[in-house]
Specification:
By secondary structure, the protein is an alpha/beta fold. The protein contains 4 helices and 10 strands. Strand 6, helix 4 and strand 7 form a beta-alpha-beta unit. The chain starts with a strand and ends with a strand.
Length: about 160
C-alpha cells in the first residue's frame, strides 16, 4: 500500500463533548490527526462524506458512501463509521470491485482517554494492507466478514452473528 484513502462518515469515533449542553456532537474527523501523530509511513487523504451518528444513516447516505468509494482512484480504502449500523453499511458496499475496503470505528470517542479508536484504526490499517479485494470490518481486535458479524449492544462489542 502506497496510498490510503480514508472516507469518514461520523460516528462515535469523531464525537466531542460540550460541557454547556451535556451532549455529544460529531466533530471534525479525528483520524488524520491520529495518523499524523503516529508518524505513519504511507500517504493518505481524508475524504469527509458525512458527520452523522450511524443510527441516523439511511439508504441515501449509504449510496453516497458507496459512490464516494467507487470514485476513488486508489485501491485501499478505510472507512470510519459509527458502530451501531456499521454492519449494514458494510453489507451495502458489497460488490465494489478492485478495492480493499475496511470499516472501523470506536465504542468511545477518539478524544477520550482509554478510547479504543487508535487500536481499531491500527488494526484497520494493517488489514487494508494485507487483505484481498472485498469489504471487511475491523473491530475488537478482529477482522470480520460483514455477512457473519453483528454488534452485541448489551456487551458493547462485535461478535459472530448467529447462524
Amino acid at each position: 500500500m502506497q496510498h490510503l484513502t480514508i472516507v469518514t462518515t461520523g460516528g462515535t469515533i469523531d464525537k466531542i463533548y460540550f460541557d454547556d449542553k451535556s451532549t455529544f456532537q460529531i466533530g471534525a474527523p479525528q483520524i488524520g490527526e491520529i495518523l499524523e501523530a503516529l508518524g505513519v509511513a504511507f500517504s493518505f487523504e481524508v475524504v469527509s462524506v458525512l458527520r452523522k451518528d450511524s443510527l441516523h444513516l439511511d439508504q441515501g447516505d449509504r449510496a453516497l458512501i458507496r459512490a464516494t468509494i467507487e470514485r476513488q482512484p486508489h485501491r485501499h480504502v478505510l472507512v470510519t463509521h459509527g458502530t451501531d449500523t456499521m454492519v449494514d453499511t458494510a453489507q451495502a458496499l458489497q460488490g465494489i470491485t478492485g478495492k480493499v475496503i475496511v470499516l472501523t470505528g470506536a465504542l468511545n470517542p477518539a478524544l477520550f482517554k482509554g478510547s479504543d479508536a487508535v487500536f481499531n484504526i491500527g488494526c484497520a490499517v494493517g488489514a487494508v494492507q494485507t487483505l484481498g479485494d472485498g469489504v471487511y470490518i475491523a473491530m475488537n481486535g478482529r477482522i470480520w466478514d460483514p455477512l457473519r458479524v453483528r454488534k452485541n449492544r448489551e456487551a458493547n462489542r462485535f461478535e459472530p452473528a448467529p447462524g
